[in-house]
Specification:
Layout lengths: L1 H7 L19 H13 L12 H17 L7 E5 L2 H19 L7 E5 L5 H9 L2 E5 L9 H7 L4 E7 L11 H11 L2 E5 L7 H6 L16 E5 L11 E5 L2 H5 L3 E3 L7 E3 L8 H38 L5 E2 L7 E5 L5 H10 L5 E3 L4 E5 L8 H16 L3 H19 L4 H7 L11 H10 L5 H12 L6
């Protein structure tokens, strides 16, 4: 235990609000209640429902609560999954199987997806041999309804939108897109992985949230992560369908196996009992009043941070975020240099590209740390504004890469990069992100990322 505790000192201190991604913390009391129920099912496997009827009941109750929250009605059906990616991929698998039965003339299934949607849809396209038709968002950063409509053709089986999109926290025009789905007679999936357990409560608090759930005609499935703003244990998500007939396309059943009849509702076989129990525990331990209280506190922290960012001349928030996610960019300073300075002060978040920006996912824990973050943000901006040799080096490096990318053969830059020492630290990464931007259209960036993933996940990693 002491050995592990020592190792964990290298990790982000999310209990002290230092992380704006990855972890969602409801406070120690709620956290411990959820963990207690999770631990009761630590070793249980929901693969065979006849062996764990209590888990069947817990999952049914949790899904019923989700359906009510998303206005699913009595006919809605769902499944608890291992995370948002599995929820999304199950919806995609369902769409392909639905099309095989309902659209037999489709030879190469296509999905029309707003380009701001989560990369899990790209992964699903790879796995299920579906052609992804990615449509650029409109000028406001939200899905362009007419462009999405124009992208639908005879091979389209499903359309995808977000509530909200992860990069900027913007809810797509779901109502208008639902009309397109009905007009074209295709399935329509709303990815609410990050917003599903925040938007309903934010709306009830009086914020102007557009319709996005099953109350919108045309929406046929929704994905939502309980391990995000549901504050359940990792990894826990749901995929909900408008009716049972749609969900049946999700299941895998094999009747000829010599080991017996095998049926599985999800992509995984083993289904950790703790995940299902943890989801149920989160709903019951927190309750509606608890979620409302946390949503209100989180929105107040978000408003504080938004106003703080807007008060800094060098920074600009992208779009008009609908809930507790935002990103900000700069036309006056190097945003990745700013990210480095904030990392040195102990803050952890994600960097984005196109345009270069800093991404913040604000959750309940940040109610106590918003002002502290803003103080460090202002100080970091002042540091970056000063003349620094690293900024010159960064510009020179990017210039060299751009020049080399025009004259060197494909793969050369990736080979150059592979000779450099890989680092998992976020500090002093501005030059690296600048180089990635320069390589974005050369075909070498994917190879660099694959090499990085291979190295960081190698047996030699410490």
């Amino acid at each position: 235990k002491d050995h592990i505790s020592q190792k964990r000192k290298q990790d982000i201190d999310w209990k002290k609000g230092r992380s704006f991604c990855l972890v969602y913390y409801p406070g120690e009391e709620r956290y411990n209640k959820i963990k207690e129920i999770f631990n009761l099912y630590f070793s249980d496997n929901a693969l065979n429902p006849t062996a764990t009827p209590s888990l069947v009941q817990l999952e049914a109750e949790a899904l019923s609560m989700c359906s009510d929250l998303f206005n699913g009605g009595d006919d809605a059906r769902g499944t608890i999954t291992s995370g948002g990616t599995e929820s999304i991929m199950l919806a995609m698998k369902t769409a392909k199987r639905w099309a095989k039965r309902e659209r037999p003339n489709v030879k190469q299934p296509e999905m029309v997806i707003c380009a701001s949607a989560h990369p899990a849809f790209m992964k699903g396209c790879d796995h299920f041999d579906i052609k992804g038709v990615f449509v650029k968002p409109g000028a406001d950063g939200r899905a362009d309804v007419e462009a999405m409509r124009a992208a639908v053709n005879e091979n389209t089986i499903m359309m995808v939108a977000s509530a909200p999109s992860y990069p900027y926290g913007l809810v797509d025009p779901i109502e208008d897109l639902g009309k397109v789905a009905l007009d074209k007679d295709i399935l329509f999936h709303v990815d609410a992985c990050i917003g599903g357990f925040m938007l309903p409560f934010v709306k009830e608090l009086g914020y102007d949230i557009p319709k996005w759930d099953f109350s919108v005609p045309g929406v046929t499935s929704i994905s939502a992560d309980m391990h995000k703003y549901g504050y359940s244990s990792k990894g826990s998500s749901v995929v909900i369908y408008r009716n049972a007939q749609l969900r049946k396309h999700q299941f895998s059943v094999y009747t000829g196996w010599i080991g017996g009849i095998y049926g599985s509702p999800t992509i995984t076989g083993t289904r950790p009992g703790g995940t299902i129990a943890g989801a149920w525990a989160a709903f019951t331990a927190i309750g509606k009043d608890g979620y409302m209280e946390m949503a209100e506190a989180t929105m107040k922290a978000t408003d504080t941070i938004k106003k703080g960012v807007e008060s800094i001349d060098e920074l600009e928030i992208i779009g008009d975020p609908d809930m507790t996610i935002l990103a900000f960019k700069s036309a006056k300073i190097n945003i990745f240099e700013l990210a480095d300075e904030l990392n040195k002060r102990g803050w952890h978040f994600e960097r984005q590209q196109n345009p270069p920006s800093i991404h913040l996912t604000i959750n309940y824990i940040h109610r106590d740390f918003a002002e502290e973050f803003l103080a460090d943000l202002r100080a970091a901006v002042e540091v970056v504004k000063k003349f620094k040799i690293s900024q010159i080096t960064n510009k020179i490096q990017i210039g060299i890469v751009k020049g080399l990318s025009m004259v060197l053969p494909e793969g050369s830059i990736a080979k150059i990069q592979s000779k450099q020492k890989a680092s998992t630290s976020n500090e002093n990464s501005a030059a690296m992100y600048g180089m990635m931007g320069a390589l974005a259209d050369t075909g070498d960036l994917k190879e660099i990322v694959v090499d990085f993933l291979d190295k960081i996940n190698s047996l030699e990693s410490k």
